[in-house]
Amino acid sequence: MSYLVLARKWRPQRFADVVGQDHVVHTLQNALNKGRIAHAFLFTGARGVGKTTAARLLAKALQCAQGPTAEPCGTCRACLDVTEGRAIDVLEIDGASNRGIDQVRELRDGVRYLPQAARFKIVIIDEVHMLTVEAFNALLKTLEEPPAHVKFIFATTEPHKIPITILSRCQRYDFKRIGPGDIAARLRAIAGTEKIEIDDEALRLIARAAQGSMRDGLSLLDQAVAYTDGEITAQVAIEALGVIDRRVVVEIVDAVLGRDPNAALEAVGRAFETGIDLRQLLGELAEEFRHLVVAQVVKRPEALIDLPERELAGVVERSRTVDGADLQRLFAMATEHVDALARAESPRLVLDVLVARMASMPPYLSLAELASLVERIAGGGGALPGSGHDGSPRGRTPTGGSDDLGRRGATAAPERPARPAAATSPRTAATAPATARPAGRCEVADEEYAAPCAPTLLPDIDPRWQSAVATVRSQHPALASFLEHGLVIGPRDETLVLRFEQTFYADAVRDQDNLKTVCAAVAEQFANVRRVQIEVGPIARHGSQVSIAEAEAKIAEQRRSTRESEALNSPTVKLAVEIFGGTVLQVKEA
Hints:
The chain is an alpha/beta fold.
């Protein structure tokens, strides 16, 4: 009798044997128990996670002599026929090799006939996404309204390639990747039954190399068994399967974090000599950086990092000695170069340079630290580390701090320069139009100093008109925004003339309800005004006469120009430009 590989020999024959897909098994069994069985199912997920196995189990549950049942007996003729692949009413088709419209037409014609020996006629199409568009279209009508005796079960690794018209007619079940712990436990049970001697470290390596696929894990175990006549140890697994020893990864990561490029490059060289796939090695490095980041930011890293307790403790301990921003930069560098390494003609060259850069990279300097450092230099407190002014590189303490020059909070903040008098907004100024507020001292809650208050800065606008607009704003903000574009003329002969250059604003104010609101506000401020007249046309300005909107824009521009000039002439900014050899391109208001 020919040898049957472990992946086929140990294919689950009961729903209870399916590993890592409890959500799918539970839903299918509930549907079978309640008799709510759909006519079409779609099983999606990565390779080797149990899609085809679940399809066959569902077929057995539907065809079982005791069924439809949530757990097929496995001993009746219908169950045995499905298990052995000879059930004439269960058609299992490979979508990759039967993808044309002619094959689908034959299938469509065949399912019209009643089953010959079982309860249903079941069609299982594996890799269904490989069907052509024409084949899907030919299947569509039958899938939408199939005969009562027909059940379709589709399986695919790429559901995005299936037309939406097909997806909408199926119940979809997404199979998850199986966790390394679940794979290792299943492999341990199978190894015990098969009398295979294997240690826990080797099981862990195989489970990680399976990358969520139970079938891949069984195939790797089969390969390791064939490699040795004795016990399968971690070293055997590494030699037989080409998996990466985590100790190599940790050695490289420790050298990078210790800023030791020589040790890091030597570790990469030893890994290369053993025949390790360098792209896979870089992926493992990225994963180790990810472990360190997770260990820093979560309270229970064991829930997110699948490592033995001893190794997890080492990750947590190392994460406490490294700055989080540095780890994130290293992770980004590793992931960004995975594809470049795969395309490179000499992957070793790419990895060597990358690892050397990682190990030689200066510690992360945040913008806050940089600003603090430049301010200190501007005050004569020292020179920028690494700039050549003092010749001493900047370092960090193991706890993620820095040396005296860059330590957070080590340098007292320089005294704040006095702020210039700020222009009062027209909206604020309008609330007190009669007299300008005298200069005084403002109480600013979030500042440590007080600056002189500025007087009202709309001298060319009648303060009574400003108050009238403020009153309107409290009732009708949109109307007030229209009034700000009008120029007040008068009052004359008990009439206040409000002229607009744009018809849009004038028409909005002329609205009957709006005009009543304006008249009431104007009457409160102008003692002798009885009417408001709206005009449209060019405005002949007298002197510096402007509208509120124009005054506000003028003040904003003056303020922007003043702040820009202050920023460009700041000693701190000038020193930063000199040190970095840069140019100020733009000044933005903070």
